[in-house]
Amino acid sequence: MIRAVERPFCSPMPLAVAVLLIGGTAAVAAPAPVADKSMPVAAVPTARPFGTLPDGSEAKLYTLEVPGGWRATITDYGAILTSFIMPPKPGDAAGKPVDVVLGFDSLEGYLKGHPYFGAICGRCSNRIATGTFELAGKTYRLATNNGAHHLHGGTVGFDKKLWKGTPRATEKGPAVEFDLVSPDGDEGYPGRLVAKAVYTLTPAGELVVEMSATSDAATVVNMVHHSYWNLAGQGSGSIKDHELAVAADRYLPVDDGGIPTGAFALVEGSSFDFRPERKPWARCGGAIETLPPNPPAGAPRGVDHAYVLRGWQPDGELRKAVTLRDPASGRSLEILTDQPSVQVYMGNFLDGSLTGKGRAVYGPNAAICLETQKFPDSIHHADWPSPQLDPGKAYRHVMVHRFTR
Question: N or C: which end of the chain has fewer CB within 10 A?
Fold first, then answer.
């Protein structure tokens, strides 16, 4: 049972400073760890054709690879991470590389429709209640593509756009920079937005995802990277036995439409408790097996909520958000971010209707999403970190994925 409900989020910083820092602008984030200078900088990522879109445009698939067997593939359609290959442990001659993200073998699978596998979502990800918001006294109406609400940027969000990909060799490792222009009025949003997403693979096997944007008019931005992770390998079954640690003491309860109620609930004493101090760490299955069904009634069980990360300040610093571990294989994933929350989604609505890579069937809880972001529906809560982006300001969001074997 939930033991306590706290008052809405309030920054301990002086109000004037808080408004300056969270009014749509994040400070420049601390850089991801720099590659060992003794290691060779990887070559420019390779690109190959990935398929044709209905309008005749050609999509590409970029491969980022570093010594040791770490490999990531990303397509310019939706800036989607289509695979992430973890090599076997050093010295394990019998070990095999494992792909740990859900997805499809070809562009066709993504074009048929999917639950945002590996995509960059935006303009404003997660939910906006009733698909409406106000800026400077004017009401804006967005697409309502999740019941009565707006989800992940709308009917044709960033996940369904063809981005411009530019492969680069950097000091951190091979990278692909994706650029997208979202015109004024796109999905109902005001302002011409210039968005960027950069994927970098470091020699240590870290996947760094950096998202940024600028606008020529006041708008709202909350971009998200939406990979589905299964550290036992995509297609290996449920993540119930994965262990999860979230650096959060509170989460956001939601109503029947998945919209935060405005209250902050303590995780202690509830199935939402994934605090890293727990010994042993909590299994994902504990929440899946004990939580009441998600709305609407009868939907599969599991967490689909935002967690309030400990110690967050709008200073652009990277802080540990979450760690996922598969005890059977020994693989783990740690995510650091400069954002105030992480949406934990346990693949509750996967239902076996999608066949992915290698003909794997994705059933309920076949993967977990760990989406760092501003709070869902924060445009309707003046005392929450604001998603508003004003002209002359820059939105920035950094995630670092660190893997161990």
Answer: N
Query: Is-contact 197 167, C-beta < 8 A?
Result: no
Q: How far is CA 380 from CA 89, 129, 266, in A?
A: 47, 8, 22
Find out whether 401 and 335 touch, Cβ atoms under 8 Å: yes
Annotated active-site residue 371? The verdict is yes
Residues 152, 187, 371, 401: which is the catalytic one?
A: 371
In a domain, 165, yes or no: yes
Question: 344: closest CA among 314, 365, 313?
Answer: 365
Residue 226 appears among annotated catalytic residues: yes
- The answer as to whether 262 is a domain residue is no
Residue 25 confidence (pLDDT) above 60: no
* Residue 42 banded pLDDT, cuts 50, 70, 90: low
Residue 400's pLDDT is 98
Residue 300's pLDDT band, with cuts at 50, 70 and 90, is low
- Active site residue: 149, 226, 242, 397, which one? 226
Tally of domains in the chain: 1
Q: Residue 85: give its domain's CATH number.
A: 2.70.98.10
Residue 297 confidence (pLDDT): 57
264 part of a folded domain: no
List the one residue out of 340, 117, 319, 330 whose CA is nearest residue 229: 117
Q: Which domain holds residue 176?
A: 29-236+317-404
86 found inside a domain: yes
Beta bridge partners of 229: 101, 368
Q: Which of 105, 305, 101, 106 is nearest to 209 (CA)?
A: 101
Q: Give the number of other CB atoms < 10 A from CB of residue 73.
A: 25
Mean pLDDT rounded to a whole number for the chain: 90
Residue 22 in this model has a pLDDT that exceeds 50: no
CB atoms within 10 A of CB 254: 18
Q: Tell me how many degrees the CA angle 287-293-297 measures, rounded to the nearest 5.
A: 170
Residues 71-88: what's their mean pLDDT? 98
